[in-house]
Design goal:
Helix content: 10-25%
Distance between the termini: 88 Å
CATH topology of one domain: Leucine-rich repeat, LRR (right-handed beta-alpha superhelix)
Number of helices: 4
Structural class: alpha/beta
Shape: elongated
CATH superfamily of one domain: Ribonuclease Inhibitor
CATH architecture of one domain: Alpha-Beta Horseshoe
Largest sheet: 7 strands, mixed
CATH class of one domain: Alpha Beta
Length: 485
């Protein structure tokens, strides 16, 4: 038995050594140079295609057999799990997509001083990489360039860089400061999402385009500043606005104040502008009456809200997961409550929807476990699936009915059908049901009166019987009337 164990261990070590001596997914026809694989391009330059998996410290040469090394292929060093340091020479002008992705031991890398092209996700998953100085010549920081580089603390971005690509710094949870060059004009969607150590950021003068949710889950971000020369954006007390002040773009998650008043000249609040602002307990919306999606998503400290007169729409997920929200005041100008608008507002006990409101979106009050009294006006024309009266213990469980939910209304077919469908307590009735009842009673009265009249006339004169088919025709007409009713 002991010999068998020794043989197994020896075999495993031998297999590991054999495996680690092999290049990562080397292609047929590739040439060897020390621990690298390469090929010669049609125009004569060298392209590095693979690295041996056992390599820990790699220095790429400027030339191989007097031919310049100018390119690193897509995925060339991808999943080189033992690679700790890498030097890329100045001769390299192109670095392909995900060239160094999932190099989970890579601590340091020296890149060329200047480059023409660099691919998306080039450092994706390099979880111990701490600092990078990017070469000149890069116009766009590609998509997901530092995706989940969780140890990254410092990045030097070159002057001349114009665009920060989508998810460029996604979940770079250790980076506390990013110095954006003055040449930057665009910051794309989710660029800094999950940068939990990022405390502040300064928008340079040329930034003119900002994507969606660029600072989502930046739990330490307390201040956003904008260069005075910027013509598109401005900051007010650390909050990001459009230059004219009309639209509030982003309120930093970690802003310490518990109360905030939207400035007088602001009338619009952008998508996700207050997401996760957990310190905020009271907000005065002032003159802001137009809202994007997810505006107060997961603002768990807000206890009450008053929407100003002139507000027509509550957007999708506007107050979703506002778990402390108890008091909501809605204006008479309101027309629409969007899908998931008050989803999981666990402290909300009562809601009075004003007269004139027409639509209530799907799951708008779903998971509002304390909500037992809902006042709906007769103006309602649409109620979405699961809008109220139900909850789910988790995302994987079937919805359950909340006991004792009362929908207070007067006379409305849409509300009546919803209450009936979801087995809720309703105080009103459907107008069409009342109409059918009145028509039925009236029809019966007319029919009885006609029969009495016919009998009376037959007694007074010889009234001919209906011709064959005549009564059948009348019965068909009555049947059609019943169907229409």
């Amino acid at each position: 038995m002991r010999k068998n164990k020794i043989c197994i261990i020896f075999g495993a070590v031998l297999a590991f050594n054999m495996f680690s001596a092999l290049p990562v997914s080397a292609e047929d026809g590739d040439l060897d140079y020390e621990q690298l694989n390469y090929k010669i391009a049609d125009d004569g330059h060298v392209i590095i295609t693979n690295c041996y998996q056992s390599e820990k410290n790699c220095i790429i040469p400027e030339e191989i057999d007097d031919v310049p090394v100018t390119e690193i292929a897509d995925d060339a060093f991808s999943e080189c799990y033992f690679l700790e340091s890498l030097t890329v020479p100045d001769s390299v002008r192109i670095i392909g997509r995900q060239a160094f992705s999932a190099c989970s031991a890579l601590k340091s890398i020296k890149l060329p001083s200047e480059i023409d092209e660099i691919g998306a996700g080039v450092f994706d998953g390099c979880s111990v990489l701490e600092s990078v100085t990017l070469p000149k010549g890069i116009k766009t920081l590609p998509e997901a360039m530092f995706y989940e580089c969780t140890s990254l603390k410092s990045v030097v971005l070159p002057e001349g860089l114009e665009e920060i690509g989508s998810e460029s710094f996604f979940q770079c949870s250790s980076i506390a400061d990013v110095d954006l060059p003055s040449s930057v004009t665009t910051i794309s969607d989710y660029a800094f999402q999950g940068c939990q150590a990022l405390k502040s950021i300064d928008f340079p003068e040329n930034v003119e385009n900002i994507g969606r949710y660029i600072f989502q889950e930046c739990k330490s971000l307390a201040n956003i500043t904008v260069a005075d020369e910027n013509t598109m954006f401005a900051d007010k007390d650390g909050v990001l606005f459009t230059k004219d002040g009309n639209t509030l773009i982003r309120y930093p998650e970690a802003k310490a104040e518990s109360a905030y008043t939207v400035p007088n000249d602001c009338t619009q609040i952008a998508n996700g502008s207050f997401v996760d602002a957990v310190n905020l307990k009271n907000i005065d919306l002032n003159n802001a009456t137009v809202y994007g999606m997810d505006v107060f998503f997961r603002c768990t400290g807000i206890e009450s809200i008053k929407l100003p007169d002139g507000t027509k729409d509550i957007s999708s997920s506007m107050f979703a997961y506002c778990s402390s929200l108890k008091d909501v005041s809605l204006p008479n100008s309101l027309r629409t409550i969007g899908d998931y608008a008050f989803y999981t507002c666990a402290a909300l006990k009562e809601i009075d929807i004003p007269s004139g409101t027409e639509e209530i979106g799907a799951y708008s009050f779903f998971n509002c476990i304390e909500l037992r009294n809902i006042h709906l006006p007769n103006s309602i024309t649409k109620i979405g699936d699961g809008a109220m009266g139900y909850y789910a213990e988790s995302e994987d469980t079937e919805p359950k009915k909340l006991e004792g939910v009362k929908v207070d209304y007067d006379q409305n077919d849409v509300i009546y059908k919803f209450v009936e469908q979801y087995d809720l307590i309703g105080t009103g009735k459907g107008s069409s049901k009342l109409w059918i009842w009145i028509v039925s009673i009236s029809g019966a009265a007319v029919l009885i009166g006609a029969i009495v009249l016919i009998v009376t006339l037959r007694k007074k004169a010889a009234v001919p019987k209906p011709v064959v088919g005549g009564r059948k025709g009348s019965e068909l007409k009555r049947s059609d009337q019943k169907k229409k009713g």
